[in-house]
Amino acid sequence: MARKNAFYAQSGGVTAVINASACGVIETAREHRKQIGKVYAGRNGIIGALREDLIDTSKESKAAIRGLLTTPAGAFGSCRHKLKSLEENRAEYERLIEVFRAHDIGYFFYNGGGDSADTCLKVSQLSESMGYPIQAIHVPKTIDNDLPLTDNCPGFGSVAKYIAISTREAALDVASMCETSTKVFILEVMGRHAGWIAAAAGLAVEQEGDAPHIILFPEVAFNREKFLARVKRTVKKYGFCVIVASEGTQYKDGTFLTDSGVVDAFGHQQLGGLAPSLAEMVKSELGYKYHWAVADYLQRSARHIASQTDLDQAYAVGRAAVEFAVAGKNAVMPAIVRGKGKRYSWSIGEAPLSEVANREKKMPRGYITRDGFGITEAGREYLAPLVSGEAYPEYRNGLPRYTRLKLAGVPRKLKTRFAV
Amino acid sequence: MARKNAFYAQSGGVTAVINASACGVIETAREHRKQIGKVYAGRNGIIGALREDLIDTSKESKAAIRGLLTTPAGAFGSCRHKLKSLEENRAEYERLIEVFRAHDIGYFFYNGGGDSADTCLKVSQLSESMGYPIQAIHVPKTIDNDLPLTDNCPGFGSVAKYIAISTREAALDVASMCETSTKVFILEVMGRHAGWIAAAAGLAVEQEGDAPHIILFPEVAFNREKFLARVKRTVKKYGFCVIVASEGTQYKDGTFLTDSGVVDAFGHQQLGGLAPSLAEMVKSELGYKYHWAVADYLQRSARHIASQTDLDQAYAVGRAAVEFAVAGKNAVMPAIVRGKGKRYSWSIGEAPLSEVANREKKMPRGYITRDGFGITEAGREYLAPLVSGEAYPEYRNGLPRYTRLKLAGVPRKLKTRFAV
């Protein structure tokens, strides 16, 4: 097998551990110098390839690459850009091939979620459709935990841990204040179509009465009367009520409780402002004093309290992707496989990309309690191991020390420019 | 000196380390059994005294009390209840004396901020004004860092650390996404009248271009045009802009940028919703895609990443309060005194309560840059040591293990009830 360079890109919303996958890819590629030359990262994801804006990771020191393990967000830049079908936008594919050929790229590692898996699948088909030999391996990543064929998605465990911890902590605050002040606290969390992140807040419950008292899932149609009645009952019983609401909470007809009207490149609506809406509802109907928080990017970048399990898995899928590539595979994704035993264990399996792309894994209804406001024991058993272990970063002067890469550009070889 | 019981109460908004002060008070009182009998905690602060609803801390195990060191929020419950003057509400003072006498209470430890220092001062004067012998010691606590005569306030260092870390982390997220998506990120933080917490975000800056690019302080009149121009310039220069906004950000005439209309027991307005307002301003005027977060209670309960310096100081003021009491002092507050040396050091001093109550320490203008959007080197020097060190709690199953107290009530001795 001739030695080829590799292309690596981060795609879509970033996570606390996506750089750990990058670390896994780069470190493992460096161990296979016979097959893999250099790893070029796309500056800002796939558009870096389209623009021929590549980062030469071989210019980064071993320590800097290792530092990716403890650095949140996308060190090479990410993007929200979905390749259209070959029929719709042949120019983009031709450009990719042009760039790949110019830089002798034979491996394509794409680190993203469901939409990105679709892009990766399309790239994997370039060999056949356009006669350019390339092996495309998808490296799973999404805080939404909605990729199929993998037990869970790297990035989810850390946001789950952050939300569970924050819920427990804020609940202690509300409990302290509720006698004369705040009685209702609402934490809005990410999760557009699936309530995985909101569900993770349920891990904060250890015994009867513990917060969160109400979880709102996108999977359960929001019923205003039922919700308000539960808030009232909870405040009467415990003195306060903690609500964790998924941003995708929606009415029976599918309309979101709040809708900012902004649509992203994938056609998804940008949500936000659910917490203040719910707070107003509680205030006007029940009169309780409230506080609300919207964690937003804080939740998915919280590397300071990342899950060790999540970190290990993020690294492992990066490593496995390269191992798959050198084994000659194409159009696959390393998947996390949960062991059968009572004690949690996991290993890396292999999933065909054609079965991953554009398919969303919903949360099983059996993970949500019958009343729709909490998680079941089955849900807890699934979630608990994913938040296990604390992967603390190194600190300097009281703040986490995150790696800074050189991000040196690869000299351009093409004369043509491509507008993205 | 006859042995007397002690009363301890938590007051006002809680913090990540107020329980460490409780731990300091209780553990130190247990070392002085000759002078101090039992420590009774007010259930939900001072109203626990008014209602004769006392918690017997002697029923708590040594381990449970030690667990307070790592448990955020107010384990005994707090309240927002300010005693009026003796002239305005003599009944409340008479009731306090009745309860103190019934339970043989001779020491009053009040753990709170500026308003609470005023309450503590009033109680300290009961000996003279109403002929009941009591020693009242104030134990400083406030995330607002606005108490005078102490270099800083326990509770502030931890929220400062949380905000600085969260800003750094979220900024990496925005930097990853800005090429095709979010360009402006706004984090709303607490701080009604003083910008101490917002200022702490400035610690995230290590080199030119680092976030936060704009800090909004209550001390600096908000100028819409200047703000928007700075956002635009920052996005043009760095590709993205991170803004940390104090909830108390206000126009020149003193009106807050947003005002929920709700007023708390101390007459303060309940603020909130600044971040979405600023985001809308940015979107409508500059067209940038935004994200925003409101940390709210998450910031002040974030014990999982508390500052070790803050924790040590919170414990120390609790310990010192008891030592002051057994030394016969009254109407004083342990204060944190910063050492003169180049290397940060601190010790505990003594501040007269009459000079603490109802006085707010403003942030020196010299800590804010001339353009009003950042912190100076002097500000950084003041803030940096306060966030130093990571005081991690113990974890169990991936979540912090926080102490649960028995909170056993002290049998009532009075027949009269008192409505609060």
From TrEMBL, chains A, B:
Pathway: Carbohydrate degradation; glycolysis; D-glyceraldehyde 3-phosphate and glycerone phosphate from D-glucose: step 3/4. The record marks 115 as: Important for catalytic activity and substrate specificity. Its cofactor is Mg(2+). Diphosphate binds at residue 13. It holds the Pfam family PFK. It comes from the Bacteria. GO terms for cellular component: cytoplasm. It catalyses: beta-D-fructose 6-phosphate + diphosphate = beta-D-fructose 1,6-bisphosphate + phosphate + H(+). InterPro entries: ATP_PFK, PFKA, Phosphofructokinase_dom, PKF_sf, PPi-PFK. Keywords: Cytoplasm, Glycolysis, Kinase, Magnesium, Metal-binding, Transferase. Residues 9-324 form the Phosphofructokinase domain. Homodimer. This is Pyrophosphate--fructose 6-phosphate 1-phosphotransferase. GO terms for molecular function: 6-phosphofructokinase activity; diphosphate-fructose-6-phosphate 1-phosphotransferase activity; metal ion binding. Catalyzes the phosphorylation of D-fructose 6-phosphate, the first committing step of glycolysis. Uses inorganic phosphate (PPi) as phosphoryl donor instead of ATP like common ATP-dependent phosphofructokinases (ATP-PFKs), which renders the reaction reversible, and can thus function both in glycolysis and gluconeogenesis. Consistently, PPi-PFK can replace the enzymes of both the forward (ATP-PFK) and reverse (fructose-bisphosphatase (FBPase)) reactions. Non-allosteric. The record marks 141 as: Important for catalytic activity. It is found in: Cytoplasm. Its EC number is 2.7.1.90. Belongs to the phosphofructokinase type A (PFKA) family. PPi-dependent PFK group II subfamily. Clade 'B2' sub-subfamily. The keyword Phosphoprotein does not apply. HAMAP family: Phosphofructokinase_II_B2.
